[in-house]
């Protein structure tokens, strides 16, 4: 009995120290411009021919490509040379949000170089699925690249955080609407910062203005415009960015 109580007290003390460590962290929700000059991609990537093997040579050996979307994913990866040696997998799922990024939590406890991340892409085939109009397969090619570049922007952010800061970020993201909005809206700028401004603009335009998305957008406009930049806002950001170069 004494041994059980002793172990329990150690577990409680450890959990308390971890919780204190998390709560003491300072976490900025905003994304940052990279400290290198990005490659400027063409405004339109569709209807071009790409050599997937050449793209794979650029992105490195640690990148999973989702079946059917390999080229779009590989192009998005090439925009983030700082992630070349980071293990990232893009996985098609049958439920969940349209797209979401997360670390393999257990790898947060080890060295940063051994971390692994997953980008989950909802590809459900259920008739009448709520997210159908904005799933990856429903998007034009450039919009696919744009939203995948957004998700990779999350990985850049996560990779900067230690275990405690990631825990603090998670708590703030779940409980603080303003924090979440700043993080997601500045993550929409990451494709722009990495040369894919046209592609994230085309995504934002498509999910708001394309005839296939109108009914969905009517239902979700308040949420989408609160947490993500509109096409008009992205267009202004692209113009502003061009003026300062």
Textual characterization of the structure:
By secondary structure, this protein is mainly alpha-helical. The chain has one domain (36-243). Helices cover 52% and strands 8% of the residues. It contains 10 helices and 3 strands, in the order αααβββααααααα. α1 crosses α5, α3 (70-78) packs across α4 (141-160) and α5 crosses α6. The radius of gyration is 20 Å and the shape is globular. The model is unreliable at 1-18 (pLDDT under 50).
List the helices and strands and how they pair.
Blueprint: H1 2-23, H2 52-59, H3 70-78, E1 87-93, E2 99-103, E3 116-122, H4 141-160, H5 163-175, H6 177-187, H7 190-193, H8 197-209, H9 214-227, H10 231-243
Parallel strand pairs: 1-3
Antiparallel strand pairs: 2-3
Helix pairs in contact: 1-5, 2-3, 3-4, 4-8, 5-6, 8-10
Uncertain residue segments: 1-18
| Helical residues, percent | 40-55%
List the domain count as a whole number.
1
What is the N-to-C succession of helices and strands?
Answer: HHHEEEHHHHHHH
Task: Summarize, please.
This protein is mostly helical. The protein has ten helices and three strands.
Index terms:
about 240 residues, disordered N terminus, 10 helices, mainly alpha, globular, 3 strands, three-stranded mixed beta sheet
């Amino acid at each position: 009995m004494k041994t059980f109580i002793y172990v329990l007290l150690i577990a409680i003390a450890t959990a308390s120290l971890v919780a204190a460590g998390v709560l003491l962290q300072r976490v900025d929700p905003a994304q940052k411009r990279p400290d290198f000059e990005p490659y400027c991609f063409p405004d339109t990537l569709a209807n071009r021919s790409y050599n997937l093997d050449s793209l794979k040579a650029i992105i490195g050996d640690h990148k999973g490509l989702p079946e059917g979307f390999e080229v779009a994913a590989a192009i998005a990866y090439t925009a983030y040379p700082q992630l070349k040696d980071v293990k990232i997998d893009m996985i098609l799922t049958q439920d969940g949000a349209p797209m979401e990024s997360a670390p393999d939590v257990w790898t947060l406890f080890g060295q940063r170089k051994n971390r692994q991340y997953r980008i989950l892409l909802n590809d459900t085939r259920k008739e009448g699925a709520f997210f159908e109009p904005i799933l990856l397969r429903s998007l034009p090619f450039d919009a696919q690249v744009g939203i995948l570049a957004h998700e990779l922007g999350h990985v850049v952010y996560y990779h900067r955080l230690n275990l405690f800061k990631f825990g603090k970020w998670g708590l703030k993201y779940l409980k603080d609407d303003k924090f979440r909005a700043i993080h997601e809206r500045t993550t929409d700028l990451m494709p722009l910062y990495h040369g894919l401004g046209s592609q994230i603009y085309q995504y934002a335009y498509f999910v708001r203005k394309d005839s296939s998305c109108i009914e969905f957008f009517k239902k979700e406009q308040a949420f989408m415009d609160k947490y993500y930049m509109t096409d008009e806002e992205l267009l202004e950001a692209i113009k502003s960015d061009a003026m300062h170069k």
